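tmp note - MFS transporter permease
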Amino acid sequence: MWLRRAFYWWLFPSAMLLPLWLLIGWGVFQAGGWVFLWVLFVAIPSVLIGQLVLALLVRSRPSVRANGAVSWLDVMGFSVWHVLVILVGCFIEAWFPLLLTAAIVAAIGLFWLTFRQLRAEIVARVEMNSGELSMRKHPRVERVLRNRGGAHHY
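out:
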């Protein structure tokens, strides 16, 4: 549980630290001038906006807010994506195209995963609430609730 909570708190700081790593990595590994332009105008905004969107999708799930922890699928997905972003920031010339492609695919897959989890929780909550409402409107249920003092008529 501590790992899932740690990822919960890591979501927003990572939106700042991962793009910063791309900039630091460019300087440390001496990637070149054209790469600097790519880092500055493509990589940093993409990682920043992508991480913020993913963090908001995860944090908007009712189960995540209630537990203060992300799911194990989130831990796995964010781990893969963050490791790939860190490796892209190392600017290893021979592996760069493969790592960049893998990071993009991981980000898209993580978006799909978080969106799917959010949708499933919303659908479950709507179905639960609509089931309660339809039961309350049923005449027999309403009569039983009224006799128990559970039905409120305003």
